[in-house]
Amino acid sequence: MTIDIGGRQIGQGYEPFIIAELSGNHSQQYDLALQMVEAAAKAGAHAIKLQTYTADSMTLDVKQKGFVIEETDSLWHGESLHALYKKAATPYEWHQKLFERANELGMLAFSSPFDEEAVDFLDGLNVPCFKIASFELTDLPLIAKAASKGKPLIMSTGMASLSEIEQAVNTAKNNGCEQIILLKCTSTYPAQPTNTNLHTIPHLKNAFGCEVGLSDHTAGVGVSVAAVALGANVIEKHFVLDRAAGGVDAEFSLEPDELAALVIETKRAWQAMGAVVYGGTQAEEKSKQYRRSIYVAKPIKAGESLTKENLRIVRPAFGLAPKHWQSVLNKVAKTDLEPGTPLDWSLFE
């Protein structure tokens, strides 16, 4: 199934769709966010994505257990959820200007809504699709609301079980959305290649009959390139201008030169998949001359036998194939043969 997002076709017959996720790496500086959009376009990204929420739409401003991040290995250890989301939120008034700049630069632009009001807000900006974040995949009312707008849905699966993904997909379809892309996603920040489990990608595609991709929180581009080889048509990566300068997601975000490499290398991986081919391609046809064949190596007089001493198997391949070696030994030359003559059936008795 080919999916149309803003006039761009998503599917196996098209190069991977690369999304640069700005997240909160703009540190709530509009000029920095604008620079990020421009850098993403220069790197060749096909789309930028924002996150549309406020701290109050995400959580409660309390410090009770569960509302403060306690995991010691978390990038955000000790922060309250409300404070973190307040720091990472993209102001609503930026959205239209950032979207317009992205469009001017040839990119699509959309966002992840985190509540039903955000869906309406984004729909009013004519976004070409909606992205459902992995933690929201079980928020079926949110999915129903987004699906009702008649636009494609990209949904990260994260920690979801097969049954939870099925519920999300069915909810989307039951509310009018048939164009669904599911992204394999490991909901750790950063994620490690060892817990990415890319073999899930073809299984996900077969299980739900949807286009599939990867929301990649690992370092570098290797995991994303491998995902394309397994059928991913969409790659989403967090983006930052300079990891050293910080940003809430900076540690697992790509810098501009890395994003450019992602665009190039995922396209190469997609181009390389091709079809099952044996015997060489048309492009390789000329290279066949550099195989080996049987040649006259020393002068041979008419009536003289062909032997291991006066013949050799060498490159190029204009003589008899090496498989005929035993058949030609001890045959008698019809004419004088000079070194460098490709052996042919007509040259001996």
From TrEMBL:
<dbReference type="InterPro" id="IPR013974">
    <property type="entry name" value="SAF"/>
</dbReference>
<dbReference type="Pfam" id="PF08666">
    <property type="entry name" value="SAF"/>
</dbReference>
<dbReference type="InterPro" id="IPR013785">
    <property type="entry name" value="Aldolase_TIM"/>
</dbReference>
<dbReference type="InterPro" id="IPR006190">
    <property type="entry name" value="SAF_AFP_Neu5Ac"/>
</dbReference>
<dbReference type="InterPro" id="IPR051690">
    <property type="entry name" value="PseI-like"/>
</dbReference>
<dbReference type="InterPro" id="IPR013132">
    <property type="entry name" value="PseI/NeuA/B-like_N"/>
</dbReference>
<dbReference type="Pfam" id="PF03102">
    <property type="entry name" value="NeuB"/>
</dbReference>
<feature type="domain" description="AFP-like">
    <location>
        <begin position="293"/>
        <end position="349"/>
    </location>
</feature>
<keyword id="KW-0808">Transferase</keyword>
<dbReference type="InterPro" id="IPR020030">
    <property type="entry name" value="Pseudaminic_synth_PseI"/>
</dbReference>
<dbReference type="InterPro" id="IPR036732">
    <property type="entry name" value="AFP_Neu5c_C_sf"/>
</dbReference>
<dbReference type="InterPro" id="IPR057736">
    <property type="entry name" value="SAF_PseI/NeuA/NeuB"/>
</dbReference>
<protein>
    <submittedName>
        <fullName>Pseudaminic acid synthase</fullName>
        <ecNumber>2.5.1.97</ecNumber>
    </submittedName>
</protein>
<dbReference type="GO" id="GO:0047444">
    <property type="term" value="F:N-acylneuraminate-9-phosphate synthase activity"/>
</dbReference>
<dbReference type="GO" id="GO:0016051">
    <property type="term" value="P:carbohydrate biosynthetic process"/>
</dbReference>
